[in-house]
Amino acid sequence: MKGEIVRDGLITEADTCRVLVTPRLMEAGWGSAPHAIGEQRSFTNGRIIVAGGKVRRGKLKRADYLLYYRRDYPLAVVEAKESNVPAEAGVQQAREYAEILGLKFAYATNGPRIIEIDYTAGTEREVDRYPTPDELFARLTAVQLLPPDAAAHLLEPFNLVSGKVPRYYQQIAIHRVIEAILRGQTRILATLATGTGKTCVAFQICWKLWSSRWNRAGEYRRPKILFLADRNILVDDPMAKMFAPFGDARHKIAGGDTSQGRDMYFGIYQALSTAGAEVFRQYRPDFFDLIIIDECHRGSSRDESAWRAVLDYFEPAVQFGMTATPLREESRDSYAYFGNPVYTYSLRQGIEDGFLAPYRVHRVITTVDAAGWRPSKNELDRYGRPVPDEEYQTKDFERVVALRSRTRAMARHLTDLLKGTDRFAKTLVFCVDQEHAAEMRQELLNLNSDLVRQYPDYVCRVTADEGAIGLTHLSNFQDVDKPTPVILTTSQLLTTGVDAEMVKNVALARVVGSRSEFKQIVGRGTRLKVDYGKEYFNIIDFTGTATRHFADPDFDGEPARIEEVTVDEAGDPVGESETLHEAEVPVDDLPVEYGLTEEQFGPDAGLPINQPPPEPRKFYVDGGEVEVIGHLIYDLDSDGKKLQVVKYTEYSGRSVRTLYPTREALQTAWANPDTRAEVLRELTRRGISFEELAANSELPDADPLDLLCHLAWNAPLLTRRQRADGARRQARELFAQYGDTAREILTLLLDRYIERGILQFNVLSELLKVKPFDRYGNPTEIATRHFGGVRGMKDAVVRLQHALYQ
Predict the structure, then answer these.
(1) How do strand 73-80 and strand 48-51 relate by DSSP bridges?
(2) Per the omega criterion (within 30 degrees of 0), is the bond before 485 cis?
(3) Helix 168-182 to helix 198-211 angle, to the nearest 10 degrees?
(4) Residues 6+ away with beta carbon under 8 Å from 498
(5) At what angle do helices 790-804 and 673-685 cross, to 10 degrees?
(6) How far is CA 698 from the centre of its chain?
(7) pLDDT over 90 for what percent of the chain?
(8) Whether the bond into 586 is cis, omega within 30 of 0
(9) Which of 441, 491, 471, 520 is nearest to 604 (CA)?
(10) What is the pLDDT of residues 333-352, one digit of tens each?
């Protein structure tokens, strides 16, 4: 174990590092400026594990040594073991860490022996010394096919003025992109999940190239760089914040202002290619050395796209596309244009590393979504128009027919969820169109009138129609110091570019057929904000979108738990549904609402809800009742690939049977306090919480062991009181060994077990400090005076627990 002292004449791993490993690394030149040794470097945060609403961190990944050629450029990882352990014992871990960190060299050592893993040569062999920094860098650059002057650009330090050091995967992406540029690649793609810091990657790439004076012509000048996107928010926010160190070198191309005396430009396609005024043509085709295209999957690379004209015109520039969307049909154009990504960091990896928030998915089903809706005979809509006599499904709601009662049921359920958790938890509600977002806002506002009286902007709509007012609401929503707005309703405007770390709830009131758009929406909640109390987030799925996408085995992110709830018109959970009728996913493109300036936004679907539309775009039904049905749980199967619909209790029983083949095996492990701790760890790792399990089973008085055995093997249930009475009979001999006071203490422990359960024994020393035990003295005094010492006390309590489970 690390940090232990010498024992039995052998030195520990920590001593091996201090006495044997570090000196040999220093001898090879590591640790002498500008080279560095990073000892005990953690490069992940440890996955956030949610169980019963409680959160804990999983084990983080930590390298014994990272060897840096420069401050920001690691070359190798070293895994050290104790000197009495073979050096080979560290090989697999060294390989794993090197592959995660994107390093080409790894070393496993026990001090005297060194095993080198060289990915550039495909070899693994024992060596007698560590290579020097220059030797290792030369071996690396020899296989990278980089030009002679590449080192100056590649090794340019990061800009760390903000205090944020790029994470390991960001460093890999930065270096991979710059290496591709230096090799002469002109079309480059990187795929990083939403919330993993694509803007940080883009900034550091620009900074390194700008500071080291890289440009396509090889001249001694700073490059001209264009940061391009399809929405103002995607360029304004980075320009003002992340790219602030560029100072006066920044310029936004807008309103025909085509200043050409700057280095770092920002612009959106619409401002550059407005019909009849192709602003981009006022720059020479070879003006820019590098163009960065944010969210490049959203049409910029399609052959038929009008925006493609901008990229084609600036064809000489190196074009670097960033996306959060892995290769699928909707992103195939991006891959065809840019080629395969030089680096990919997925949502699954981000959650596993603990950099992204895991999510809990609530599947909420209304009666009309489950079974469809059909108008009554001769039913007229809000404006007196006859509603066609057809059966309407989820895909039709708010597109063909708008059911006000369905929107109201959704709003009530969401309101109740917030009332039961946190009414100031930042929440995004994605609606079908701007009109639907307006109706949803109104319903939510009326349901939360008590808070709206104090906070008039508690619920706001942010769509294209709000213009500058909407942007102000959005800015306040993103501001961690401002309590409101709490709920934003939108249609498509906020699917991307909303960097709000505080979002705790993402509600889907519309079908999202596009995988890439769904990932963007999920990404609104994946950002962590631990100091704000946000360690995971909820996806409230009213349309089956989330469960459908999560059921896809290619989806790269697993939920902590997916809950399925059906609610009535009042928003209350009712009944249980065994069969779900999933609506078809519409394949037609959704209306494009994002990407335009306030002046350029068209009318979209946003019409005052008290006026009939000029054309019968959809029918409006204000009457009727909508209810909700069922609470199911989706969880991954044993292969971790496919989501299955199971009840929480069924999942828990199945998990127990995978851990323990028989009831007797579980009971034996549970009766012993030491092995019980391992049982609890394994159950927690699988997301099983006894508090939540007891609540779901409606068996609050059951002993945890009996509850597990009942769910796994249908064993008879005992209450804690029944177990305690049995223990008193079983432990007569035990009680007879002690004096009156000791027997009183053991009896009190059984009484406390009846009240609070067996888990109290895990913190016995703390339990003995509080009433009624404190009247017998402190824990040490109790043990010494009445049980013959600490060991005797422990033995008595262990025997008492065995009696409970005989």
Answers:
(1) unpaired
(2) yes
(3) 50
(4) 233, 428, 474, 478, 524
(5) 60
(6) 31
(7) 39
(8) no
(9) 491
(10) 667 788 889 999 988 889 88
655 CB neighbour count, 10 Å cutoff:
20
Locate 631 and state its tokens: 């609470």
Per-position b or e across 152-185, b if 16+ CB within 10 A of its CB: ebbbbebbeeeeeebbbbbbbbbbbbbbbbbeeb
Is the preceding omega at residue 616 within 30 degrees of 0, hence cis? no
pLDDT for residue 805 is more than 70:
yes
At residue 411, the 3 state secondary structure works out as helix
Of the listed ranges 136-140, 521-525, 594-598, 635-639, the least confidently predicted one is: 594-598
Helix locations, 448-602, DSSP H: 449-452, 467-478, 515-522, 545-550
Whole-number Å distance between alpha carbons of 300 and 272: 13
Phi and psi at 481, nearest 5°, equal -90, -5
- pLDDT tens profile 125-157: 999 999 999 999 999 999 988 888 899 999 999
Q: Which of 415, 418, 459, 421 is nearest to 441 (CA)?
A: 459
Q: Closest by alpha carbon to 493, among 520, 457, 456, 527?
A: 520
Q: pTM of the entire structure?
A: 0.70
Quickly count: other Cβ atoms within 10 Å of residue 617's Cβ. Answer: 15
Q: Return the residue matching tokens 């790029």.
A: 166
User: Two tokens at 795?
Assistant: 């033995």
DSSP strand pairing (187-192 vs 318-323): parallel
CA 367, CA 369: separation in Å to the nearest integer? 5
Give residue 553's pLDDT.
53
Instruction: Give the 3-state secondary structure of residue 247.
Output: helix
Structure-model confidence comparison of residues 439 and 273, the more confident one: 439
Measured CA angle at 259 (ends 249, 152), to 5 deg: 35
DSSP classification of residue 119: T
Q: 786: burial class by Cβ within 10 Å (0-12, 13-18, 19+)?
A: buried
Question: Residue 272's pLDDT is what?
Answer: 86
| C-beta separation of 61 from 42 below 8 A | yes
Calpha distance 402→11 (Å, rounded): 74
Q: Say which DSSP state 714 is in.
A: -
3-state SS, residue 454: coil
Rounded Cα–Cα distance for residues 97 and 78 (Å): 9
Judge whether 635 and 562 are in contact, CB under 8 Å.
Answer: yes
Q: How far is CA 511 from the centre of its chain?
A: 22
Place of tokens 């006859």: 386
| Residues 561-587: tens digit of each pLDDT | 445 555 555 555 554 433 222 222 232
The DSSP code sequence of 331-390 is GHHHHHHH-S-SEEE-HHHHHHHTSB--EEEEEEEBHHHHH-B-PPTT-B-TTSPBPPS-
State the greatest distance between any 2 C-alpha atoms of the chain, in Å, as a whole number: 99
Question: Beta strands 359-365 and 250-252: pairing type?
Answer: unpaired
Q: Identify whether the C-beta of residue 802 lies closer than 8 Å to the C-beta of residue 671.
A: yes
Residue 188 confidence (pLDDT) = 95
Tell which residue, 501, 367, 493, 361, has the closest CA to residue 426: 501
| 792: enclosing H helix or E strand | helix 790-804
DSSP designation for 59: P
Indicate if the pLDDT at residue 424 is higher than 80.
yes
Token pair for residue 99? 């592959």
Query: 565 forms bridges with which residues in the sheet?
Result: 364, 631
pLDDT, tens only, 374-387? 999 889 999 899 99
How far from 113 is each of 87, 89, 104, 124, 706, CA to CA, in Å?
6, 12, 20, 13, 52
Estimate to the nearest angstrom the gap between the alpha carbon of 187 and the chain centroid.
29
Candidates 114, 119, 123; CA nearest to 27 is 114
For residue 628, the tally of other CB atoms under 10 A from its CB is 28
Q: Report helix, strand or coil for 232.
A: helix
> Residue with structure tokens 């590092």?
17
As to burial, measured by CB atoms within 10 angstroms (0-12 exposed, 13-18 middle, 19+ buried), residue 418 is: buried
